[in-house]
Amino acid sequence: MQNRQEKISQVVVTAGQMRDIEKRIFAAGMPVVALMEKVAGLIARRIQEIPPTSVKKAYSVPLNTPFLRESPQAGGSRVGILVGPGHNGGDALVVARELHFRGYEIWIYSPFSKLKELTSQHLQYAQSLGIPIYQTIEQLPDSDLLIDGLFGFGLERNLTDPIASAINQLNELSVPIYSIDLPSGLHTDTGEVLGTAIRATYTFCLGLWKLAFFQDQALEYLGKAELIDFDIPLADVEAVLKDAPRIKRITRATALATLPLPRPPVTHKYKEGHLLLICGSRRYAGGAILTGLGARASGVGMLSIAVPESLKSLLVSHLPEALIVGCPETETGAIAQLQLPENTDLSSFNAIACGPGLTRDATPIVQEVIKSDCPLILDADGLNILAQMGAIATLKKRQPVTVLTPHTGEFQRLFPDVPDAKHDRVQAVREAATQSGAVVLLKGARTAIANPQGAVWIVPESTPALARGGSGDVLTGLLGGLLAQAATKQIPVEDIVATAAWWHSQAGILAAQERTELGVDAFTLTQYLIKALT
Ligand SMILES: NC(=O)C1=CN([C@@H]2O[C@H](COP(=O)(O)OP(=O)(O)OC[C@H]3O[C@@H](n4cnc5c(N)ncnc54)[C@H](O)[C@@H]3O)[C@@H](O)[C@H]2O)[C@H](O)CC1
Ligand SMILES: [K+]
């Protein structure tokens, strides 16, 4: 049984779902006022805990400036509170009051003339405490920290002046900004910037993770993101999400539970999966090696690698444990024909991963594997060739599992008619999967994986260190190895794909920590895969 915290940390909701969950809590008797007190109290406590040294954007603040210490001296730390018209502003005002009583020097920026009732009451009380309140940006005194409570999940339309230009000016100040719920100006679901948005240093996401936190376009606005768990009952979450296709964050616990560990004490190599990699060309020999090394790290029982004949000895020297199948090659050095060992055909394997380094000259090979009845991963040139064949029509004819691993460019070539690829990556990957019947992994800063029923997994953390040639080849091999090992087990394919993507990201994160973001070439990455698990 997963504990509550683990379950909550997996959930990702839209603004509409969050509102429905909130409605249930209020309908059950929880007073709105009490919930706001509780949530904002937790935020105020966190603000006091975060050490100034963890604040990346504090350029203007010497690291020893005690602006966040528990009991600042009078006049010590100055905190500006940005208050919007809704309950996001109400949260901010409760934070203002709490920090005021803890000895912080507070001022409030409240540019809206009409506030929701509860927000208005909190503003009135803050005023009665003598906290200065300003309506225009020009009046604002200096501060060491800004708390952004302008808008939360209630933002409905593009921001316009004067608030839009106020946000732009606030972003220009070299002062850290902590956003409540999400940076004001971001669309809660797509993560799009609605006119303009606060560039936060830190964001406290309230209650449940909102979808925007996993959309690439939002990342540069979010800063460091943290979930403030305010005890939303799981029953309310379940009641609202019910049968809707889920969007889930993959956590370490879920990934580890999906890995084929521990192995059964009595087994043999073919029971632990037989993977066929089809990759490489004279032009792209390295891709085949990296794919092989990714597969090696998966622990797959048996690894066969089909490459053009002229690459055979190179592959043997790098992967002595693998069965290297040298194939006849075209004049350009691509695989011309799959020449598998005697008594072997494509159905002999538990999974096939096809594509890295093939070149488009290997088109007949990709056509052949698509016709096979073996679970298949297509990557790189495998995807480009599929796109030329017409991805959706081709995949609809295929019965066994297909996994596609495109980056954004490949995705657009594969699914030119999926409208949302730039605007909403999560929705785009979901549509691609439902339309094609494949499991689709869309690579990015936050990789998203969808199954044909519309369920989505998101890899919640990664590193730009992985934006490097060959890193995708490693993922294809790793994923192939895991898929082959899972062949006899009842594990949903998308869980395996998400686990491989999570593992790949974790290896990148660990390698970048030890070697900087510049030190994570694809070969080095393969050396960190096992380390990332131990
Ligand atoms: N999740 C929870 O259970 C809790 C959430 N809390 C906080 O409440 C906000 C959501 O509050 P809400 O009042 O619904 O929305 P906002 O504060 O985001 O603001 C809506 C407010 O703004 C107006 N508006 C919308 N778009 C614009 C625009 N472009 N320009 C100007 N005005 C705009 C709109 O008409 C509304 O009046 C959530 O994020 C949390 O921070 C609770 O405090 C705790 C429980
Ligand atoms: K906000």
Automatic annotation (TrEMBL):
Keywords: ATP-binding, Isomerase, Lyase, Metal-binding, Multifunctional enzyme, NAD, NADP, Nucleotide-binding, Potassium
Domain YjeF C-terminal positions: 252-534
Catalysed transformations (reactions): (6S)-NADPHX + ADP = AMP + phosphate + NADPH + H(+); (6R)-NADHX = (6S)-NADHX; (6S)-NADHX + ADP = AMP + phosphate + NADH + H(+); (6R)-NADPHX = (6S)-NADPHX
YjeF N-terminal domain segment(s): 18-238
Names of the cofactor(s): Mg(2+); K(+)
Organism, scientific name: Nostoc linckia FACHB-391
Known function: Bifunctional enzyme that catalyzes the epimerization of the S- and R-forms of NAD(P)HX and the dehydration of the S-form of NAD(P)HX at the expense of ADP, which is converted to AMP. This allows the repair of both epimers of NAD(P)HX, a damaged form of NAD(P)H that is a result of enzymatic or heat-dependent hydration.
Keyword Membrane belongs to the record: no
EC number(s) from the headed UniProt entry: 4.2.1.136, 5.1.99.6
Protein name: Bifunctional NAD(P)H-hydrate repair enzyme
Family of this protein: In the C-terminal section; belongs to the NnrD/CARKD family.
Quaternary structure (record): Homotetramer.
Residues reported to bind AMP: K443, G444, A445, R446, T447, G472
Cofactor: how bound: Binds 1 potassium ion per subunit.
Annotated InterPro entries: Carbohydrate_kinase_pred_CS, CARKD, Nnr, Ribokinase-like, YjeF_N_dom, YjeF_N_dom_sf
Annotated binding of (6S)-NADPHX, by residue: 87-91, 152-158, 181, 357, 407, 473
HAMAP family found in the cross-reference section: NADHX_dehydratase, NADHX_epimerase
One Pfam match: YjeF_N
Binding site for K(+): N88, D148, S184
